Amino acid sequence: MIKFKNRLFWIVAVLSLGIDRLTKLWVVESFKLGESWPIIKGFFHFTYVTNPGAAFSLFSQGGGWLRWLSLAVSLAIMAYAWFGPRLNRWEQFGFGFILGGALGNGIDRFLTGEVVDFLDFRLIRFPVFNFADVFINIGIVCLLWVAFKQPPAARKDEGEIR
Structurally, how many domains does the chain consist of? Predict the structure, then answer.
């Protein structure tokens, strides 16, 4: 049996990508573009929209380069997990969620040139988003947790006179 370094990273990446792709498939097959289903009326709806740009519709005009950015980020994260150091649990979660989200939105961009969004929090007037966006943000929080809570690695040359 092949042993994978950073196995939790790969599991999180595959699961988050799967959740994102399945929910987007459900939305595309169940809704008409622009259709909205209230889950909690006036607060939370499923609303099928597309976004050719990045977060908050930034770069919606001429954002074709975003597909290549998501591919580059995804490949870089995979290379880091494969060839880089053994990551701690929170780093594996963080990079795994970011990879799953980047791949989920990247696949949309390569297939149709725009991302499927459907999570619509109306009470707080937040832009409509998807699970890939959620996973990317969870990944960032995990990595920030590591950055602020983990003590700096002990340097080998501590105590040496220079």
Answer: 1
Residue 106 belongs to domain spanning: 7-149
Asked if residue 96 belongs to a domain, the reply is yes
Are 145 and 137 a contacting pair, CB within 8 Å?
no
Give residue-wise pLDDT tens across range 91-118. Answer: 999 999 999 999 999 999 999 989 999 9
pTM of the model: 0.85
> Does residue 38 belong to any structural domain of this protein?
yes
Q: Where are the beta strands (DSSP E) in 30-157?
A: 36-40, 44-51, 115-121
Catalytic annotation, residues: 117, 133
Separation between Cα atoms, residue 119 and residue 103, nearest integer Å: 18
